[in-house]
Specification:
Elements (H helix, E strand, L loop, with lengths): L9 H14 L6 E2 L1 H10 L6 H11 L7 E2 H8 L9 H9 L12 E3 H10 L7 H11 L6 E3 H8 L2
Antiparallel strand pairs: 1-2, 3-4
Helix pairs in contact: 1-4, 2-3, 5-8, 6-7
Length: 156
């Protein structure tokens, strides 16, 4: 347990710091909308300025237009709750949808999800684990998941 972040181990906090430092390209101690945009592009996403500003506003507790480390940790350390609504789950998938993917709304590429599952979070999956999980969601190996249909099926 770490002071200020009682639900995190020292190791988890260190992982968050490393990730934060990678995104904080100018080493200014905060993540600007431009730096967040670079991260999103690295993930294969192309958010516009309005979307980036909305993401910053959602996380930015002190209202200075940037994300400080403590704000970053608050968001990154949220545990998945079984009380999420289907709309909230769909919104989480939508982050990975991307604007220029060429797919219809409500669809996401499995390789984008695989990259996220093996790169981010405190419990990263191995490539094999991620592929196994995704093969359960995309059994025909089409490379695309209709996440709206999937979420609707899971909550029935």
């Amino acid at each position: 347990m770490v002071a200020g972040h009682p639900n995190l181990s020292e190791e988890e906090l260190q992982e968050f710091k490393e990730l934060f430092d990678l995104v904080d390209q100018d080493k200014g101690g905060s993540i600007s909308p431009e730096e967040l945009g670079s991260l999103m592009e690295t993930l294969g996403l192309k958010p516009n300025q309005e979307e980036l500003d909305a993401m910053i506003r959602e996380i930015d507790e002190d209202g200075n237009g940037e994300i400080e480390f403590d704000e970053f940790v608050q968001v990154m350390s949220r545990k998945v709750q079984p009380t999420y609504t289907p709309e909230e789950v769909k919104a989480a998938f939508k982050v990975f949808e991307g604007n220029s993917s060429g797919l219809p709304a409500g669809h996401v590429r499995t390789n984008t999800l695989e990259r996220a599952l093996t790169t981010y979070g405190t419990e990263k999956l191995s490539v094999d684990e991620a592929q196994d999980l995704l093969s359960q969601i995309d059994p025909d190996n089409t490379g695309v998941i209709n996440y709206v249909e999937y979420v609707n099926m899971m909550v029935q």
